[in-house]
């Protein structure tokens, strides 16, 4: 029956081994984290009322949260407003009940997969692409951290060169016998500062682009992946529920439950397949965008660093013009030290 339910060749139902692994797929981050993910999306309730007495409570246990008063025990007949309040509270109770049932089924499915007593639906190609994305994101985060460290070091170097240039210039005015020597050392530090500011502008642009790629583009795709993984768990939970009902007796009572389970399963299957398609599309566009962005940024980084350490001021400035980078001198909005000279 499983083959008929899954329907598409891109996915397959893989038995979970005793060690919790599904075929050659990598381990998940941990059972505790997965359980938190199952529980994180609670029912969508506003703060109009709460239900006292839990799932087994009656409609009379509904208490408006907008007031601190206890329920009245007077024999005043219920008015139209009370009926509306009870209707809203009843809808909320149904929402909480459905959420509780869904959470129970998903938790049961997750534990069943983890302890080797169940099966899960796996799109091998998509799963490998997702794992590759997560690994790529970790590596790019490392590059981002190193890039930020480099900008901090460059900024510190610029401050030191700036101060040293000022000191040499001052001594050049006050030491006639060493005026020339202090003078050309001051000019050298000023030139190094100018080139350093240009390099810092290029590196800042590089770091900013990597940050956008990692924290916005990749993260957006991974958010859709999380939704897909949650939908996959729900899909398998209701698939398992449907399979168990199908193996039971076919009397009038179970026939109604089976039809209801089939409809619920179909809804979760549609949600799962839609999100699977969304993930595949986002992964494709992410890869294309990553190549385009990194081609530009790596060329910028290489040209700027090479020109700086070669002392080629003209090539360094041309690199910034090529990538349309406008320099912002470190510090406040006032003119930089170079502009004041």
From TrEMBL:
SMART domains: Arfaptin. GO terms for molecular function: phosphatidylinositol-4-phosphate binding; protein domain specific binding. One of its GO terms (cellular component) is cytosol. It is found in: Golgi apparatus, trans-Golgi network membrane. Residues 46-83 are annotated as: Disordered. Coiled coil: none annotated. This is AH domain-containing protein. SUPFAM superfamilies: BAR/IMD domain-like (SSF103657). One of its GO terms (biological process) is intracellular protein transport.
């Amino acid at each position: 029956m499983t083959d008929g339910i899954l329907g598409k060749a891109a996915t397959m139902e893989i038995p979970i081994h005793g060690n919790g692994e599904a075929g050659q797929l990598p381990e998940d981050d941990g059972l505790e984290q997965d359980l938190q993910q199952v529980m994180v999306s609670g029912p969508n309730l506003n703060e109009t009322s709460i239900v006292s007495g839990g799932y087994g409570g009656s409609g009379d246990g509904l208490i408006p949260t907008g007031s601190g008063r206890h329920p009245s025990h007077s024999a005043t007949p219920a008015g139209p407003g009370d009926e509306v309040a009870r209707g809203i509270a009843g809808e909320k109770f149904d929402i909480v009940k459905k959420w509780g049932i869904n959470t129970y089924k998903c938790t049961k499915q997750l534990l069943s997969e983890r302890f080797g007593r169940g099966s899960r639906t796996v799109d091998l190609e998509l799963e490998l692409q997702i794992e590759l994305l997560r690994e790529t994101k970790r590596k790019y985060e490392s590059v981002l951290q190193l890039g930020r460290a480099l900008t901090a070091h460059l900024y510190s170097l610029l401050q030191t060169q700036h101060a040293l240039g000022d000191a040499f210039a001052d001594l050049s005015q006050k030491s006639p016998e060493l005026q020339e020597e202090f003078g050309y050392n001051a000019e050298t530090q000023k030139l190094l500062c100018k080139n350093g500011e240009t390099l810092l502008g290029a590196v800042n642009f590089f770091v900013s682009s990597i940050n956008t790629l990692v924290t916005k583009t990749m993260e957006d795709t991974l958010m859709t992946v999380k939704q897909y993984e949650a939908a996959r768990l729900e899909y398998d939970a209701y698939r398992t529920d449907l399979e168990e009902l199908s193996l039971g007796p076919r009397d009038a009572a179970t026939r109604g439950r089976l039809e209801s389970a089939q409809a619920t399963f179909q809804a979760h299957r549609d949600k799962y397949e839609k999100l699977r398609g969304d993930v595949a599309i986002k992964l494709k566009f992410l890869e294309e965008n990553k190549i385009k962005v990194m081609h530009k940024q790596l060329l910028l980084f290489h040209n700027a660093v090479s020109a700086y350490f070669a002392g080629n001021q003209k090539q360094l400035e041309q690199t910034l013009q090529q990538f349309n980078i406008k320099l912002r001198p470190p510090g406040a909005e006032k003119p930089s030290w170079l502009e004041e000279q």
